[in-house]
Design brief:
Length: 272
């Protein structure tokens, strides 16, 4: 037993010595790597200086500086809401609401995904608005780029096609509603309708039209749901959810009827 203990002790001392040698070698390599990295860090520090950023708020000294600050603030605010404003003045509102109604009527809340529906709505909007955009480009943007008209004249020319598009889609009762609420007499010509009245009236008209189209979309799918539920009840399969059977049936009917093409055609032709 004493011999076995001496052998084990000698092996432990040998292993301990080897570990010290490995540890010392690793330490030497680590120190060498650190020494090699120091010149690289010094060169990088000399070639790429760290910028100093100072932020300060100074008081305006002249009325012109105050006016400029307010103009910049108004511009930044307008840029943050400009996409929403532009979308509300186009065909996007009606198209995206109708497609959302279709997804709900099919009983597939996650199919197609929302980004797909939004992308389809945007491209259909560009298709519907292409005549208006071409007119704006021809009558307002190109003359302004050629410095033939001023910026104010370009805005006035660009407003006219958009105004005509919104007027064609807006119901008269919606226009009269906002005119009555403002207690303003009816304008003599459509061009005299202010945008503060035309835009909300146009949005209300688009919502009304989109909900009406959504009602027509729901009717055939509601009939399919009722038929499937009646068949399941007559067969005594009350424990089977009707949606399990009706959803494939609705998808099949919608696909066989070429529903996407029919709906896209109806949406595009619905704009005057």
């Amino acid at each position: 037993m004493r011999g076995i203990g001496q052998v084990a002790s000698s092996k432990w001392q040998v292993a301990r010595g080897e570990w010290r040698m490995v540890s010392a070698g690793t330490t030497r390599w680590a120190m060498l790597g650190i020494l090699l990295l120091i010149p690289v860090a010094l060169v990088a520090q000399e070639s790429i200086p760290v910028p100093r950023i100072t932020v300060g708020v100074d008081s305006a000294r002249t009325p012109q500086e105050v006016s400029t600050s307010l103009q910049i603030l108004a511009l930044l605010t307008l840029l943050s809401v400009a996409p929403s404003i532009l979308l509300m003045m186009t065909a996007f509102t009606r198209i995206v609401i109708v497609l959302s109604f279709l997804k709900s009527a099919l009983g597939t809340p996650n199919i197609p995904p929302t980004p797909v529906l939004v992308g389809l709505s945007l491209f259909l909007t560009f298709y519907v608005m292409s005549p208006t955009l071409e007119q704006i480009n021809r009558e307002a943007l190109q003359p302004y780029m050629k410095k033939q008209i001023s910026f104010e004249q370009a805005l006035a020319r660009a407003e006219k096609p958009v105004r005509q598009f919104m007027l064609r889609q807006t119901y008269t009762e919606d226009l009269n509603l906002f005119l009555r609420m403002r207690k303003q007499p009816a304008p003599r010509t459509p061009d005299e309708v202010p945008l503060t009245i035309l835009i909300p009236a146009f949005i209300l008209s688009e919502l009304k039209t989109a909900f009406l189209i959504g009602f027509y979309i729901y009717i055939p799918f509601l009939v399919i749901d009722l038929v499937v539920a009646s068949i399941l009840l007559s067969m005594g399969m009350m424990m089977l959810p009707p949606v399990v059977v009706s959803m494939p049936a609705k998808l099949l009917v919608f696909t066989l009827a070429n529903g996407w093409s029919v709906l896209a055609q109806a949406l595009v032709q619905g704009f005057r």
